[in-house]
Amino acid sequence: MLSRLKREIYNILTIVELEARRLRHDYADIAVRSAQPIVWLLVFGTIMSQRAVIPTGDVSYLTFVAPGVLAQAVLFVAIFFGIMLVWDRDSGNLAKLLVAPASRISLVLGKCFSASVRAIAQAVVVLTIIIILSFGILDIQLFSNPIYILLTIPVVILISAVAAGISILFATIFRTRERVMGFGQLLTLPLFFTSSALYPITWMPWYLQWFAKINPLTYGVDLLRGLMVTGDLSGAPLDFAVLVGYLIVLVLACSALFRRMME
Amino acid sequence: MKAIEIRDIVKVYNKSVKAVDGVSFDVDEGIVFGLLGPNGAGKTTIIKMIVTLLSMTQGHVSVLGHARPKEDYFIRNCIGYVPQDVSSDAALTGYENLLISAKLYGHRGRAAKEMCEAILHQLGLWEARDRIVKTYSGGMIRKLEIGQAMVHDPKVLILDEPTIGLDPVARKQVWASIRELKDRTKMTVIITTHYMEEADQLCDMIAIMSIGKIAVIGTPTELKASAGTGSIVLEIKGTPPEFPGARFENGVLTIPSDDCARELPSCVAKVASSGCEILSARIKEVTLEDAFVKHVGTRIDEMDQWSSVRKTRKLARRMA
Predict the structure, then answer these.
(1) Residues of B in contact with A96 (CB under 8 A)
(2) Residue A24's closest chain B neighbor by CA?
(3) Which residue in A185, B29, B149, B226 has the fewest CB atoms around it within 10 Å?
(4) What are phi and psi of A246, to 5 degrees?
(5) Secondary structure (DSSP) of A104-151
(6) Residue B72 and residue B70: Cα distance in Å, rounded?
(7) Which chain A residues contact residue B91 at CB under 8 A?
(8) Alpha-carbon distance B2 to B162, whole Å?
(9) CB-side exposure of B78: number of CA atoms within 13 Å?
(10) Which residues of chain B have pLDDT under 70?
(11) Nearest-angstrom CA–CA distance, A174 and A181
């Protein structure tokens, strides 16, 4: 039993290693994708902070939105991961993984954390740029504890794994690249706009606040903001529990439906 | 024990398309077994049911005595599978592809590395090990995939259309690799193909399939014998002597024979001594093609031309 568990953990790590090796041969992808969140910060962020329309308490708007931009970068990488899975299915790559002696749960978890590999690479780039900008270039005041900044990485892993889980769930249900792409796009905007990434939840009408409360990204942004801006981690256990809960449910659902990918 | 036992399997896709319709066969250990048939005959569906990728709508499959779907995990541990579509990761190097496969089958650290290096040498891919697979030729990719399927010394190796889309030279190389592996490891090999020549050259046992069913199973020799005998064809001037069962039309004499090569000299001598002039002599052997026509009713290339061309092109695009 224990050796089987060890083997499955090793399987998960191997699938993640596969993604890391893919990424190593394709740096350009990260650079291109990093542009978008920075544009958000520089364009949307600076315009919004000019007018001060969004109430962000003691901190400047740019400071408020910086963790949101990081979360967005992570979300956008992971929410389309299901398409890669459909791609892998259309080539023989997925078949090869499915006939290997690995449980469906390790396969799905491996694929979720594969998205995290890309998300981490992305997050490091975006975070570095935000830190550089915070040194007197833009009005961004980060919480000045480097350990807190480092702790954003596990949060990034968790957010991206959940987002990839959602994407993989769509991939197992819809099974074609076009439809998974479509649903990814359909989902990205509500996830992003009903989270606390761009403005406080209290700023939304009540029914959207309700939606924000079931939105996993809200909890991710909350963790990131606690680590990067306020240093207040009183909500962290709940945030963490919600994200892990989402991941467990998604992984179980995906593994149950995974067989559909090949039919 | 049989390597594979299949009993009355049926596969219905989307509740409407019956891809496999009541197929049963056994595969003995240590042989090369071929599923021969046009595209759409259900070969790939059967293969996917054997390798645990698809569930059966009806029927039973067991591999080395392990029954599906209960013992899928054991089955996965003892089979190697090369799907029809390119399954090596085009973005990684050949070595990395092998390493990932080795790790998925439980090899670790140094042992995994050494095993990959050994396989690269065996397959003649050592020089190309650090090149991205995207730059490999079709034959090299197939060999790499076979290597990836061999990292755990499987008892049964299953290859779905191993030479589709390959040029004749690459095809012969892949055949040689398969034969060499089989002789060295004594494993059971199952291949699907729609190339008659491939089935004839590689397989000890062939099942001819058509539209979801098996038309006939036998050794290549048996199948060819079932389609009739070969004949000696002589083009002559004059009136030939009598041969049992022979036909003579428009100066062409056709003599049926079970062993054409051996009987050709005596036939030629007999015709020559009767005073006829022999313009040409040739042997017409029975081929698997004849067996296919006899048991299925049409020629294989009439059945699958369009879809095969489409598939080959799709594959070519993907490799580009």
Answers:
(1) 81, 83, 87, 101, 148
(2) B92
(3) A185
(4) -55, -45
(5) HHHHHHHHHHHHHHHHHHHHHHHHHHHHHHHTTTSS----S-HHHHHH
(6) 6
(7) 22, 25-26
(8) 23
(9) 18
(10) 301-320
(11) 10
Starting at the earlier edge strand, list the strands of the sheet with B205-210: B79-82, B156-160, B188-193, B32-36, B205-210, B213-218
pTM score, whole prediction: 0.86
Q: Which helix (H) or strand (E) holds A210?
A: helix A206-214
Specify the DSSP element, H or E, that contains B319. helix B300-319
Whether B29 has its CB under 8 Å from any CB of chain A: the answer is no
| B23: β partners | B9
Asked if A7 and B106 come within 8 Å (Cβ–Cβ), the reply is yes
Amino acid identity for residue B267 in this structure: C
Residue B218: strand, helix, or coil = strand
Q: Do A99 and B86 touch (CB under 8 A)?
A: no
Closest CA to A220 of A185, A259, A183, A191: A191
- Residue A243 pairs in a beta bridge with none
The span from the CA of A91 to the CA of B90, in Å, is: 10
**Could you tell me how many residues make up chain B?**
320
ipTM reported for the complex, 2 dp: 0.89
Closest CA to B207 of B26, B13, B9: B26
Give whole-number Cα distances, B7 to B31, B34, B62, B165, B217, in Å.
19, 17, 9, 32, 15
Q: In angstroms, rounded to a whole number, what is the distance separating the alpha carbons of residues A188 and A180?
A: 12
pLDDT digits (tens, 9 = 90+) for B60-77: 999 999 999 899 999 999
Strand partners, B45: none
- Answer whether B55 touches A (CB < 8 Å): yes
Residue-level pLDDT at B320? 45
Q: Model confidence over A34-61: pLDDT tens digits?
A: 888 888 888 888 888 877 777 777 888 8
Q: What is the structure's pLDDT at B303?
A: 63
Residue A229 near residue A65, CB atoms below 8 Å:
no
The residues spanned by each domain of chain A are 2-262
- Cα–Cα distances in Å, from A118 out to A4, A101, A108, A128? 28, 25, 16, 16
Nearest to A200 by CA among A48, A79, A77, A47: A48
B96 to chain A, any CB pair closer than 8 A? The answer is: yes
C-beta separation of B84 from B160 below 8 A: yes
